[in-house]
Every structure is written in C-alpha cells, then in structure tokens.
Specification:
With about 260 residues, the chain is mainly α. It is about 80% helix and about 0% strand. The protein contains eight helices and two strands; from the N terminus they run H-H-H-E-E-H-H-H-H-H. A two-stranded antiparallel ribbon has the order 1-2. It is elongated, with a radius of gyration of 23 Å. The two termini are about 35 Å apart.
C-alpha cells in the first residue's frame, strides 16, 4: 500500500498528460458519447508508459505545487496532441479549398468527431487520410511519439516555452503550405474551367451557362479526384513524415 501511495502522484500526472494528448488529437472525437473510449485508451497508454519507466516528480509536493505541475502537464499534452492533429487539419484545409471551388461551400455534414458541421470535401479528405495513416501503420508512430514525450520531458519537469511556440508556428506554417500544395492541381484546373465558362458566357450570351455549369464543375471535379487521390498518396505520406519529424524536433527543443 505504501508503494502504491509513493508512485500514485507520478501515475496521475502521467495519465493527465496522456488523456490531454488523446483528447486533443480527436482520435475518438470530442463529443460526450466518446468520453469512455478516450478515457480507456488514455488510461491504458498511461499504464504502459508508466510501467515502462516509473517516474515521480522531484521534491515536496504540496497541493499548490501539485496543481501547478498538473496544469503544466495539461499544457504539454495539449501542445503534443495539437501537433499530431496538424495532419488532419492540413488535409481538411485542402478539402475545404477544393470544396469552395467545386461549389460545395453550401453543403456541410455533421462531423461525428467534433459534433459540429464541416465541409463535405474537408470531411472526405480527412477520412481518406485516416485510411492512409492506418495503411502505413502511422498510428504506431503516433504512439511512439506519445511515449517519447515522457523520455524527453519526464513527468513534473519544466520545458522550454519559447521552443514550444516556435515549434507550433513552424508546424502550422508547414501544414498550411502543404495544404495549398495538395489542393493546387485540382484547384488550378477548376479555375481554368471557370475561366473558360466565363469567356463562353461573354461570347454566346444567349446560352445560359448557369444551367449546367455547376453540374459540369462537379463532374470534372469528381473525375479529377478519382485520379488525383491515388497519385497524391505519396504526397499525403509526406505530410505524415513532415508532421512526425517536426513534432520530434519541437519535442527535443522543448526538453531542458
């Protein structure tokens, strides 16, 4: 019993960081219905990580100091979870940009992960990315990064806030750059199609192109997506590597 009480603070802090990371990554969503799945996954991962290398905060832990350390663990967990979630935010932005040009901006679906509505194309790209991630065992890499956070920044240890901010800015900037790079081929073709339809409407004003322009854009977009999604798989895998590598670099820089 005494041994349990000795290691209990360390396990609680390990679980707090893990549950924050899992919740921020939105693996099982953020809705109330998925709370048990997130808790069970975080509890299991925290137990495995803690048993691998049990660690307790150094020093006398009062209520105030334990609360401050807990807040620090929550911040670290949220940062790491957000870094991994950048993968899906990147492809979702790319899908939203394409959906706007395809004429799907008014069409939205309920996102079961967040409980909020999201663009159709953004949700489509996000789902495809989940399948790609599982096909290359990317979830194993995510679990490895979650475990590495405890190696570089042990429970209760401080971390470099400046390196954290710089890492998040760099990661977000790279994510936006790759999002527009992913959407640009189809977006460029659709811009050419729209420009052609606009010229035709000026040349032949008697023909109402609005009657079939939306259907034509959707047809062309779906045809392009059927070809583009297979050829763009290596690029999406590159997004995985970019996010994983940048997250590890940020984690190393944050370690004091």
């Amino acid at each position: 019993m005494d041994l349990v009480l000795v290691f209990l603070p360390g396990f609680i802090l390990t679980f707090v960081r893990m549950v924050t990371m899992v919740s921020t990554m939105m693996v099982f969503g953020t809705t109330w219905e998925s709370r048990w799945a997130r808790l069970v996954l975080a509890l299991g991962l925290a137990f495995v990580v803690f048993m691998r290398a049990p660690h307790n905060p150094v020093g006398d832990l009062g209520i105030l100091s334990f609360g401050m350390i807990t807040v620090r663990e929550v911040v670290l967990g949220a940062v790491m979870g957000f870094a991994i979630q950048t993968i899906f935010m990147t492809v979702k932005v790319a899908g939203s940009v394409l959906g706007q040009e395809m004429g799907f901006s008014m069409s939205r679906v309920m996102d079961p992960m967040t409980g909020m509505s999201s663009p159709v194309m953004g949700r489509f790209f996000e789902t495809i990315t989940y399948l790609f991630l599982l096909s290359v065992d990317g979830h194993h890499r995510i679990f490895e990064i979650l475990a590495r956070t405890y190696d570089y920044i042990p429970v209760g240890s401080p971390f470099n806030l400046e390196a954290m901010v710089e890492g998040l800015i760099f990661l977000t900037g790279n994510g936006l750059r790759m999002a527009f790079s992913l959407a640009f081929p189809i977006w460029g073709i659709l811009m050419i199609v729209n420009g052609t339809l606009l010229v035709m409407s000026r040349i032949v004003p008697q023909v109402n192109l609005m009657e079939f322009s939306f259907a034509l854009r959707i047809l062309i977009s779906i045809s392009l997506l059927s070809v583009f999604m297979t050829s763009s798989a290596p690029f999406i895998f590159g997004i995985f590597d970019m996010v994983f590598d940048d997250t590890m670099l940020m984690l190393r820089a944050m370690a004091l």
